[in-house]
Amino acid sequence: METKFLFLSGLLVILFSQTFGRPSPDAQQYQESCDRQNITFQEGESLKYSVYYNWTAVWIKAGVATFDIASAEVDGKTAYHFIGKGRTSYSYDWVYKVRDTYESFVDPETMKPLYFLRDIQEGGYKQRNKYAFDHLNEQGTIEYRYVKDKLKKENEPMNITRCTQDVISAVYNMRCVDHTQMEVGETVPIEMVLDGKIYDVHLRFIGLDTLNTDLGTFRCAKFSPLLLEGDYFSGGEEMIIWATDDENRLPIMIESPIVVGHIKAYLTDFSGLRHDLSSKL
User: 207 — alpha (psi -120 to 50), left (phi > 0) or beta?
Assistant: First the structure.
């Protein structure tokens, strides 16, 4: 099954396609210490982004994305419920209509996923997935539903490691990394599963910067994720993420070239932060 343009997951961290990523040089160390402690965000946090597309020097508002944190009970245990939604603007729907929803249920003690749900509608393509993770036995049970092609694969197991993330849990997992303890150029590896395949990717710390936005001026930490080659991205580390240089590590802006043009995403609204925005100047 061909992997299509993943509007939402590609926006904030990594865009996947059929090509495997390069293993990170820190992969073995990551396997030994991939549990995360969350002191960064909390239940009730809500983020909203505007997504713009540029071609021939004209910036067009192409869509919006929202990321919310709720709580849920999974197998009798309280879990984080991460909800990501992405859609194209109504005026842009005639070009390429997107209505994506991603949900991840995560163990708050380890920041590892328990369940992952995906419901995407992009152009004429539709797909629904459900993943069930069992990190203790290092095996995940994955249920696929490909709506467009009427193909169903249910309860199909695949091997994972104790560090495997889904694309939404990975976003929040990376926010738990303390960049103040990193050297410029250092990478944080992360292992993700998508469409029944495991991808080894990483996030590189570039350094500190100051960013002016409609929400104000912020001290930021800059990161570059490894992108995998696909229909829209050429691969490599050309995407740049600006995150607040404070305890929230809040993604403020994302910018990346694509095969034709550029995209940018700006944080336009937020609420429910765990910490004060001390990085705001």
Answer: left
- Distance from C-alpha of 10 to C-alpha of 257, rounded to nearest angstrom: 12
- CB distance 83 to 115 below 8 Å: no
Residues 26, 188 contacting (CB under 8 angstroms): yes
Quick one: average pLDDT of 224-250? 73
In the prediction, which pLDDT does 33 show? 60
Per-residue CA distances from 91 to 48, 63, 221 (Å): 19, 9, 34
How far apart are alpha carbons 26 and 207 in whole angstroms? 19
**Length reported for the chain:** 281
pLDDT higher for 15 or 279? 279
Largest alpha-carbon pair distance within the chain? Answer: 53
C-alpha dihedral sign at 157, 158, 164, 170 = negative
Strand spans (E) along 4-122: 46-55, 58-74, 77-88, 98-107, 112-122
Assessment of whether the complete model's pTM goes beyond 0.90: no
- Collapse the DSSP code of 82 into the 3-class scheme (helix H, G, I; strand E, B; otherwise coil) and give the result: strand
| Closest alpha carbon to 239 in 215, 251, 219, 223 | 223
On whether the CB atoms of residues 215 and 221 are closer than 8 A, the answer is no
| Amino acid identity, position 77 | K
Half-sphere exposure of 49 (CA within 13 A, CB side): 27
Q: Which of 55-69, 135-149, 175-189 has the lowest mean pLDDT?
A: 135-149
Taking the C-alpha atoms of residue 21 and residue 231, their distance in angstroms, rounded to an integer, is 15
Confidence of residue 101 (pLDDT cuts 50, 70, 90): very high
- Report d(CA 154, CA 167) in Å as an integer: 20
228 near 14, Cβ under 8 Å? yes
Q: Which residues contact 89 (CB under 8 A, 6 or more apart)?
A: 61, 62, 63, 64
